[in-house]
Amino acid sequence: MDTGRVPELPRRLVDPRPVVLAGFLAWLVATVLVWVNPAWSDARPVCVMGLVVGALGVAIWLGQLRSARRGDKGAQVGLDAD
């Protein structure tokens, strides 16, 4: 049985910023498109809620990042605090 240490993933694979930015931009483009095209007006609430949920996720992530930087006991482990 191998009890060796598991290697850490490269920084570029654990950085959430590119994924968050791409997702937010996709929802933003979708929201603009459904607002411009009246035929897609039924999708407006879905797109707006996509933006709201994305903003909430970013707020939680920033709060956890701030906690990790302060060294709080309940902070998420593994966040890059630099």
From TrEMBL:
Q: Where are the transmembrane segments?
A: 19-37, 43-63
Do you know which InterPro entries this protein is assigned to? DUF2530 (IPR019681)
Alphabetical UniProt keywords:
Membrane, Transmembrane, Transmembrane helix
Its recorded name reads DUF2530 domain-containing protein
Species, as recorded:
Nocardia rhizosphaerae
